[in-house]
Amino acid sequence: MPARSRRRLRLLLVLLTSAGCSVSGQRAGTSGFLGDYSQLEAGGENRARLLYIDGQADFSNYERVVVDPVVVWGDPGDGGSELRELADYFDTALRRQLALEFRVVEDPGPGTLRIRLAITDVEDSRVGIECEILDSAEGTRLVAAVDEREWGAGSGAPSGRAGAEKAFDRWADILRTRLSAFRDYDASQKRYEADP
To answer: What is the mean pLDDT of residues 164-189?
Structure first.
């Protein structure tokens, strides 16, 4: 394995163990939103439940991001309007976080990521999402994840909608942090490899 690939693998392991962003042939516990789940593998403890990261992708080239509106995937049933409000909340949180590190734009193109995200399940104290990050110009999948979060019922712990919003805020922060770290790491590797 080339040195760059080994360094990238080490960085990814460190990043992924610090916090979770936690099919064909469709796997159990997936919604169908991502379509193809064959690349995803178990994320392990404190990681997304299922995860794929393109180890050959160079994130240093991405300065802009297109965010598709967050969708509610599947049959929302009686809670459709509340789920739509939660999706809008998540969409706003995601755009706000990403704008701290990237230019959020409307049109695909070179140097632009595209993020697709769906709320796939909301039940009691648990919420599930599926996320895909693509090169917007080529449509190449760079990252895909299936995750869920639970929030406790202990004293002071948020419940209901407040708990879901807290989970969405956390995911938005994780996504921005990860993408920024990937971009900065790849940029530093380019500088390192360019030095004699």
So the answer is: 89
Reading phi first (left if > 0) and then psi (alpha if -120 to 50, else beta), residue 173 is in: alpha
Contacts of 92 (CB under 8 A, 6+ apart): none
Task: Supply the pTM of this predicted model.
Answer: 0.79
Contact 84, 45 (CB under 8 A): no
Which DSSP state fits 89? Answer: H
Query: Tell me: the pLDDT tens digits for 25-47?
Result: 344 468 889 999 999 998 777 67
Quote the tokens at residue 75. 């049959």
User: What is residue 19's predicted lDDT score, i.e. its pLDDT?
Assistant: 39
CATH topology of domain 3-194: Double Stranded RNA Binding Domain (3.30.160)
Q: What are the phi and psi torsion angles at 68 (to 5°)?
A: -65, 145
Helices 160-194, 3-18: axis angle to 10 degrees equals: 160
CA 28 to chain CA centroid, Å, is: 20
